[in-house]
């Protein structure tokens, strides 16, 4: 490995000397390093000089000397060559990685232990209201999502159709997902500035150049990075670890590279583009912290996804050289749904492999962890107990710990350093770019587990009432707006089981003899009264950790019964059903939502999970009250719902108003909505059409069937499709009793310059030949985008179709598909044959269930045989 590095450095030196004056290089060495220059170098050739410098200063020292000379002399044309070779050396240095945070004896090549991680287009902003583990569970239910993959070296490339320059990219991902791994782009200067290092400078004032010199002192010769010839990238890693206020609203504006200011002001101006607008910025963050940066400052949001099911297996098979052991681990992980879900996180795969390698490699493998608590407790057994820093840090929301934080918790910094060396898999000590000491946990879940262990030990060893502690923890978790204590609670309750206490026997002065039955009773009561569907689901996870699954088994029996519609589910049973649907792979096809008999509250508890599984909530007895939950799901950054069928419910104007808050949210991805057979009045329709004008609303396909007062609703639709903000491409108004007068109302919108409709459904609308005259005018309009038209099950007759043919043969007509089924046609075939013979766009024509007879078909065949005919399908 060292030989490869030296060869790259030698090549770099030779390339540099070939592009600059050799004598200048020698004079520089003699002036700055006289003690190291013994023989005269004037008679050396380029290769010998390069070899000598490499031997004297080593790879890193030779590289720094070369960079200093280039920067001092301003030789930018050779800088690109040097940087390319420099990146190759850095890449070789980083091709090796420690497994987790272990010692050098566990050093492995990255391609031997890690699999590819997917970076996809994401969404910015939003308030996080659930623990990251819940987000993983939701992702596992969204298997049919079409991800738009982005390669690391294309992060700053505009997506197809996007003209705006991408300056700032925010990459989100839950803890342990791999946000800091990347490939390098065609960059001249790349400055990694982790927030955990910048935090230490929050009380100082710097100019941008001064700040860079603090972290990169070897670049002090660099006077300017604003040249148009240079491409500069700043990488701000770990926004979630930032302790700066980042006050974008009130911080003073500054555009001067040389002006000194606080680090907070400096960063906000850099991110906003006031300072160095030509630079590129890459910011990484956990989802909960992403909203700290205003959306208008972000040009592109990406998301690092974890392992899918096949990649989980790939990880374990790469991790172990013994095929039999890898097979055992894969089978065991799959047998526990909670463990399998958590393996979405690469770090948890590493934790699991550490534990299971020891347990499953033995002949007696009865004591193999099946729950999260058991897995983390087994993992803890190889570690050394480390005071109380875990719980206090979790309580404050701390992810990293500086020397001051540890001192406040009564921990000696030298002791912490000692623990970071011993407990390498749990707690690690890092030196930032500026060499300050920073301590952190390898993964947040380890901190949460240790916090639970600490609370449990304190409780048992000091004779505290375990039930009161559990009640307090349950209440604290339910009060948390972002699910901060969800996983901690699961660990704490799981530790109360005798089997887990046995694992901790050497840490406990006595055992807790209290039964978990009272805790189970308390949790069941909370499930009955809990208003948050997300918190209820976590309470079922807690019951699972306590080995209590009666409610879940009850629901499984319900799903397998033939009498689902006869059984009325209570709200707490709906919470259990939501948990089962979320954590099981085999129940989705068994469950028929229309057979579910429950109250409005029951449906509300089901909604967050149903959206992950079903696209149709038709006939689900939804009322206006349900729409608040519907809207919250649509607003979630984790929602990938693009289609939603809400037909045959009882949604009124109030429900639509609530629904619109979700539809107009930047996170909402809904493109297709069916609101047929609901109770929308004129006000509700107007609210919906106003919402459709929102720049964040992505709806392109709408279906309506109105029960009454059709005229007023059609006017709202007309106003929308003819508005400048209309994005609607498909409108299905079939099964409305709109008649010819309704089509006439629509006509002004259809010929509007702003109308973007490509597909219009008017089947079963009681239309006659009079509507055909209006539609012909629309097809002939130069503004028409219409490609598909459904006029089936009407009363157009031959006269209507003859009028329609005038539009079909017009040069402006773009119609590709036409459905004329069930329209009492028999004498219009010659007109249709003329359309087929014409240079039209028509590719599909439906004429079934009309009285065409043999004579009519013969006439059609004349058109079909014409060389101009492009028809591909005739029904």
TrEMBL record:
Keyword RNA-binding: no
GO terms for MF: ATP binding
This protein's UniProt keywords: ATP-binding, Cytoplasm, Leucine-rich repeat, Nucleotide-binding, Repeat
Domain FISNA residues, every copy: 86-157
Gene Ontology CC annotations of this record: cytoplasm
SMART domains xref list: FISNA, LRR_RI
Protein name from the UniProt record: FISNA domain-containing protein
Keyword Nucleotide-binding: yes
InterPro entries on file: Leu-rich_rpt, LRR_dom_sf, NACHT-assoc, NACHT_NTPase, NLR, NLRP_HD2, NOD1/2_WH, P-loop_NTPase
Compartments where located: Cytoplasm
